[in-house]
Amino acid sequence: MKDDYAIKVSNMTKTFKLYSDKANTMKERLVRGWKSKPEVRTVLKNINVEIKKGETVALIGVNGSGKSTLLKLMTKIIYPNKGTVKTNGKLTSLLELGAGFHPDFTGRENIYFNAAIFGLTKEEIDKRLNDIIEFSELGEFIDSPIRTYSSGMYMRLAFSVAINVDAEILLIDEILAVGDQHFQDKCFAKLHELAKSNMTIVIVSHALGPIKDLCNRAIWISDGEVKEDGKCDKVIDDYLKECA
Amino acid sequence: MSVFNELYKYRELLKTTIKKDIRGKYKASFLGVLWSFINPLLQVLVYAIVFPYIMRVQTPNYLIFLICGIIPWTWFTYSLSNGTTSITNNANLIKKVYFPREILPISVVTSGLINFLISCVIILIFVLLGGVGLSWHLVFLPVIAIAQYLFTLAAVFLLSAFNVYVKDVEYMVVFLLNIFFYATPVLYSVDMFSGSWLAWIFKLNPMAHFINAYRDIFYVHQIPQLENILFLILLGFILVGLCYLVFKKLEKRFAEEV
Predict the structure, then answer these.
(1) Is B97 close to A77, i.e. CB distance below 8 A?
(2) Can you tell me the ipTM of this complex?
(3) So what's the pLDDT on residue A180?
(4) Nearest CB to B24: which of A16, A25, A104?
(5) Which residues from chain A sit within 8 angstroms of residue B27, using beta carbons?
(6) Closest-CA residue in chain B for A71?
(7) Is A117 domain-assigned?
(8) pTM (two decimals)
(9) What value does the mean pLDDT take over residues A82-88?
(10) Which of A104, A175, A204 to mutate to test the interface with B (most CBs of B within 10 A)?
(11) Which of A113, A170, A174 is the best mutation test for B, with the most CBs of B within 10 A?
(12) What is the pLDDT of residues A90-109, one digit of tens each?
């Protein structure tokens, strides 16, 4: 079958321009000259990864290794310098919770803003509204402006929207430290349920314990290259050995 | 065609962004969204006092003459100043979520259009109370508004994308709008310059054509120069297309530069 992949990264290289002090203003550009070459740093080198439909994959690695950049490339927030990143299926990325929230609007209105950013239509949001409110456990607060929310309530609402947007591919970056223990458990339970339902999930996390339970494959990224790719338990063990 | 597909898919986002642009700005204030109508009215009031009494302008029904110019001008400046910063002000979103970036500039110009259409009711009230009356020429209003919409959108595509790379653009826009205001016949009539070499400014300034046309339908009650407006619509479509291509080209590195 030609399209049994969910995400296919081929020969992909991403570089960032490194400015010691970025020339943002006209004056700086004129003074330094338009052509002054900034230092170029390669963040990801020749990455080849194919993720099949229904897989639950963890991206692990130390800070600055390029995991989040890889995730952003998959989302099409940034674009590769060389090679291609192809995705197949409706994709939702949770790189940040509460994107598009407006503090002066109520929780209910913000559900619409936030879900719309994920590409949902009004009818689709209407259908999910009750699930989202119930999952967030906000109760009557849902009709108060969210500037009155505590940060925990804010995160709960944001996560509830994100998790109820059903996509075929879900990309998650380090956002699971949400709310109290009870709510975190609930989030992981929901992720387990989604993983079983044949959704493709790619998750970046340093919480290796819960990740081990959730994922069946792990990709270890080190210095912009894939260092190890395989069974989740084994890769995480090797990673921990190296870190120790 | 995939452009329209993508926009259609994200139509709810476009709708909520427009709603946020219209209502969000004034949500916490007491008068709320009314501010977007009070502001131009207060501006009209200031000019209506200053010009007839201090500068001795002799235009009949100057208040109505003025309001026909100020209301479309408000749409134009609102769109340009807010549109230019529409990408940079939403840096958080740009860096964290994928969505068609053009939604941000489009929604600013569109929310401006909606405000403008509502504000036209104010013009109508003034026209009726001021004794100028209504005429069937109002049917041309949509045509003129479309032309202005296209020009504004083209400019906003370009400026919002440039502003990501060079932050000076937003400050230059403020200054240029100021000059542009005096180069556009908002406070005065083009007739004052007939025969003068300055008249070419109004020929080259699309806003001058639009404001003259609005005045034709609201104030003078005559058919606006249609071949002019139709030509501007055509040109507007071409400019929107070109500026959109530039926007799409520059968009790829928004998340890195913003």
Answers:
(1) yes
(2) 0.80
(3) 79
(4) A104
(5) 102, 104-105
(6) B96
(7) no
(8) 0.87
(9) 90
(10) A104
(11) A113
(12) 888 888 777 778 888 899 98
> Measured between alpha carbons, how far apart are the two ends of chain B, in Å?
28
| Residues on chain A touching B95 (C-beta within 8 angstroms) | 77
With residue B84 as reference, give the H or E element that holds it: helix B62-84
With respect to residue A236, please indicate whether it lies within any of the assigned structural domains: yes
How far off is chain A from B17, nearest CA to CA, in Å? Answer: 8
Smallest Cα distance from A242 to chain B, Å: 31
Distance between CA atoms of residues A167 and A89, nearest Å: 8
Tokens representing A213 are 């339970």
| Per-residue pLDDT tens over the stretch B175-191 | 999 999 999 999 888 88
B93 with A100: Cβ contact below 8 A: yes
Report how far residue B12's alpha carbon sits from residue A243's, in angstroms, rounded to the nearest whole number. 46
Look up residue A61 and give its amino acid. G
Please tell me if residue B15 touches chain A, with a CB cutoff of 8 Å. yes
Nearest CA in chain B to A147: B28
Domain assignment of residue A162, yes or no:
no
Q: CB–CB of B13 and A119 under 8 A?
A: yes
Looking up residue A230, the CATH number of its domain turns out to be 3.40.50.300
Q: Which residue has the tokens 């209301």?
A: B71
- Per domain, the residue ranges of chain B are 2-257
pLDDT of A176 strictly over 70: no
- The pLDDT score that the predictor gives to residue B215 is 94
B108, two tokens:
């600013």
Phi/psi-derived region of residue A41, left when phi > 0, alpha when psi is between -120 and 50, beta in every other case: beta
Mean per-residue pLDDT for A28-41? Answer: 68
Distance CA B162, CA A131 (A): 42
Evaluate if residue A86 carries a pLDDT over 80. Answer: yes
Task: Please give the angle made by the CA atoms of B16, B22 and B23, to the nearest 5 degrees.
Answer: 85
Q: Are B193 and B199 in contact (CB under 8 A)?
A: yes
Q: Which of B2, B86, B92, B98 to mutate to test the interface with A (most CBs of A within 10 A)?
A: B98
3-state secondary structure of A145: strand
DSSP H helical ranges for chain A? 26-32, 67-75, 107-117, 122-136, 151-164, 181-196, 208-214, 232-243
For residue A218, give its domain range. Answer: 5-90+205-243
Give the pLDDT confidence score for residue A177 in this predicted structure.
64
For residue A79, which residues of chain B lie inside 8 Å, CB to CB? 252-253
Q: Which residues of chain B have pLDDT under 50?
A: none
Across the beta sheet with A225-231, the strand order is: A91-94, A169-173, A200-204, A56-60, A217-222, A225-231
Number of domains in chain A: 1
The C-alpha R_g of chain A, in whole angstroms, comes to 20
* Contacts of residue B192, Cβ cutoff 8 Å, sequence gap at least 6: none
Test B168 with A25 for CB contact under 8 angstroms. yes
Structure tokens at A84: 């291609």
Q: Do residues B135 and B224 make contact, with C-beta atoms less than 8 angstroms apart?
A: no
3-state DSSP helix/strand/coil % of chain A, to nearest 5: 40, 30, 30
